[in-house]
C-alpha cells in the first residue's frame, strides 16, 4: 500500500503550503512589528517631550530645599512643587502618576523627593511616597538614562493595576548639572489594546493565508503534477506493450519537452517492434510454406483456408481491418505441425490413439511459436482453438458454442472444408457436394450453424 507521503503530488502541495505559510508568518511578524513599533515609538517620543517640558517647569533650587525625610512633605518648597505637578497632571488627563526622584551614592538606589497620590483607572488609590523613601531604579534602565536626557520605557509595564508607560527627563540646576529626574506614568491601556488587536488581526490574517495557501498549493501543484502523471501513465502503457501510445502535454517548458522526447521514443520503439514482428512473421510464414512444401498433400492448404476465412468474415460483418490481420494469422494456423514428426504427418493410414494425442499438440505448439508477436488473445485463439467443436468435443480446451470466438468458428469451417476437398496421405479427396453434405450434417455439432450457412451461400454464389 502506497504511503501518503510517498505521493509526489502531496509532497509538492505540502512544500508549497509550507513555503507560503512561512512567508505569511514572516510578513505577519514584520507587519506586526512595524505597525506596533511605529505607534509605540510615537507614544514614547510624545511621552519624552511631555516629561521634558514638565521638568523645565520645576525650579531646581526649590527642589534642593526639600529635606529627604518624612517631614519633607511639610516643607514649603515641597508644597510649591507638588502644586506644580498637580497642575501638569490636571492639564494632561492621561497622566496617572507624576513624581521626582534623585539618585543616591548607592548603585540603583534612588529616593523620592516629591510624589503625588495616584489614582488608577480602576479607581484604586495609591498613596504618595514620602520624601526620602528608597526606590529601586535598577528595574528600569530608561529611568537611569533619564538622568542625562529625556527617555521613555521601551516596553509596556503591566501589573494588577493595569498597563502603564513611563517617561523621564532630567531636572538640572543653574549650571546644567542633573539634580533629579521627573517621571511620568501614563495609562497605556489603549496601546496595550492596540497591540492585542494587531496581534489578533495578524493571527486571523495568518489563518486566512494558511487556508488560501492550502487551496492554491493544491491547485498549483495539481497543474505541476498532472503532466508528470500523464508521463507515468505513458510509461505504464509502453510497459504493457502499447507502443503507439502518446502523451499530450502542451507548452514550452521542460516537462513539455520531456513529453515530446517521450513520444519520439515511443514512436521509435513502436517502429522497432513493428520491424521485429514483421521479420518474425515473415520467418514463421516461411516455415509454414516449407512445412507445406514437404507434403504434397497439404500444399496450398493454408492459403485456401485463409481465403475462405476472409470471405466468410467479411460476409458476417467483421471489420475489414480486423479481417486483413485475421487472414494473415490463418495462414499460420497449422504452424505448430513443425513440431510434429514427418512420419505422423505423412502416415498413409489412420493414426492410432497415441499418435493422435501427439498430433493434437500442434495447436498448442503453434500458439507458443507465435506468442512473441501475438499480443491479441483473440488471434492467439485462432491458432490454439481452430480444432474446437461447437458441441464441446474438440481440443485442446473443449470450448463450446458462444465460448468459441466467431473468428475461430470461421477457421474451423474453412479448414475442414478445404481438408475434405483435398487429397491426404490417408484418403482421397471428397467431392465438393460430399464435403458440403458433411458441413450440413455436422452443423450444430462440430460446426457453428451460422458460419456454415454463410459459407454455403458463398459457395453457391461462386458456383462451387
How would you sum up this structure, described in words?
This protein has 464 residues and is of the alpha+beta class. The chain folds into two domains: 4-197, Beta-Lactamase (2-Layer Sandwich), CATH 3.30.450; 269-461, Hypothetical protein af1432, CATH 1.10.3210. 56% of the residues lie in helices and 11% in strands. It contains 15 helices and nine strands. The protein has helices at residues 8-56, 60-64, 76-91, 141-145, 189-239, 254-294, 301-315, 320-330, 342-345, 353-359, 362-370, 377-384, 406-420, 432-441, 449-461, and strands spanning 95-103, 109-115, 118-119, 125-126, 134-136, 151-152, 157-159, 162-172, 178-187. The strands form two sheets. Strands 1, 2, 5, 6, 7, 8 and 9 form a seven-stranded antiparallel β-sheet that branches. The protein has a two-stranded antiparallel sheet with strand order 3-4. A hairpin with a 5-residue loop joins β8 and β9. α1 packs antiparallel against α5, α7 (301-315) packs across α15 (449-461) and α11 runs antiparallel to α12. It starts with 7 loop residues before the first helix and ends with a helix. The model has no long low-confidence stretch (mean pLDDT 80).
Amino acid at each position: 500500500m502506497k504511503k501518503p507521503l510517498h505521493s509526489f503530488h502531496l509532497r509538492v502541495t505540502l512544500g508549497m503550503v509550507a513555503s507560503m505559510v512561512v512567508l505569511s508568518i514572516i510578513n505577519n511578524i514584520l507587519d506586526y512589528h512595524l505597525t506596533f513599533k511605529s505607534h509605540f515609538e510615537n507614544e514614547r517620543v510624545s511621552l519624552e517631550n511631555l516629561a521634558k517640558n514638565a521638568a523645565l517647569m520645576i525650579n531646581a533650587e526649590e527642589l534642593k530645599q526639600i529635606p529627604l525625610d518624612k517631614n519633607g512633605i511639610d516643607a514649603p518648597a515641597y508644597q510649591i512643587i507638588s502644586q506644580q505637578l498637580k497642575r501638569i497632571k490636571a492639564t494632561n488627563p492621561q497622566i496617572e502618576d507624576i513624581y521626582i526622584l534623585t539618585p543616591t551614592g548607592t548603585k540603583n538606589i534612588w529616593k523620592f523627593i516629591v510624589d503625588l497620590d495616584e489614582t488608577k483607572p480602576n479607581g484604586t488609590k495609591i498613596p504618595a511616597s514620602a520624601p526620602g523613601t528608597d526606590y529601586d531604579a535598577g528595574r528600569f534602565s530608561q529611568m537611569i538614562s533619564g538622568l542625562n536626557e529625556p527617555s521613555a520605557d521601551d516596553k509596556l509595564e503591566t501589573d494588577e493595576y493595569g498597563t502603564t508607560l513611563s517617561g523621564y527627563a532630567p531636572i538640572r540646576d543653574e549650571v546644567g548639572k542633573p539634580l533629579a529626574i521627573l517621571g511620568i506614568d501614563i495609562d497605556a491601556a489603549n496601546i496595550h489594546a492596540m497591540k492585542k488587536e494587531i496581534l489578533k488581526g495578524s493571527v486571523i490574517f495568518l489563518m486566512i493565508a494558511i487556508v488560501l495557501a492550502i487551496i492554491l498549493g493544491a491547485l498549483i501543484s495539481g497543474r505541476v503534477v498532472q503532466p508528470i502523471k500523464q508521463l507515468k501513465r505513458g510509461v505504464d502503457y509502453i510497459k504493457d506493450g502499447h507502443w503507439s501510445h502518446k502523451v499530450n502535454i502542451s507548452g514550452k517548458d521542460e516537462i513539455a519537452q520531456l513529453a515530446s522526447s517521450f513520444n519520439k521514443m515511443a514512436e521509435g520503439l513502436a517502429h522497432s517492434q513493428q520491424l521485429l514482428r514483421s521479420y518474425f512473421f515473415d520467418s514463421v510464414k516461411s516455415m509454414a510454406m516449407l512445412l507445406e512444401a514437404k507434403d504434397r498433400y497439404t500444399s496450398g492448404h493454408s492459403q485456401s483456408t485463409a481465403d475462405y476465412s476472409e470471405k466468410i468474415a467479411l460476409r458476417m460483418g467483421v471489420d475489414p481491418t480486423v479481417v486483413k490481420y485475421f487472414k494473415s494469422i490463418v495462414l499460420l494456423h497449422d504452424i505448430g505441425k513443425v513440431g510434429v514428426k514427418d512420419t505422423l504427418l505423412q502416415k498413409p493410414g489412420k493414426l492410432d490413439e497415441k499418435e493422435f494425442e501427439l498430433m493434437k499438440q500442434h495447436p498448442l505448439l503453434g500458439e507458443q511459436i507465435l506468442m512473441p508477436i501475438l499480443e491479441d488473445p483473440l488471434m492467439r485463439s485462432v491458432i490454439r482453438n481452430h480444432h474446437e467443436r461447437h458441441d464441446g468435443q474438440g481440443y485442446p480446451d473443449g470450448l463450446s458454442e458462444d465460448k468459441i470466438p466467431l473468428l475461430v468458428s470461421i477457421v474451423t469451417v474453412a479448414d475442414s472444408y478445404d481438408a475434405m476437398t483435398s487429397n491426404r496421405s490417408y484418403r482421397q479427396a471428397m467431392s465438393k457436394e460430399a464435403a458440403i453434405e458433411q458441413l450440413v450434417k455436422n452443423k450444430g455439432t462440430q460446426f457453428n450453424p451460422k458460419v456454415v450457412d454463410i459459407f454455403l451461400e458463398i459457395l453457391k454464389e461462386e458456383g462451387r
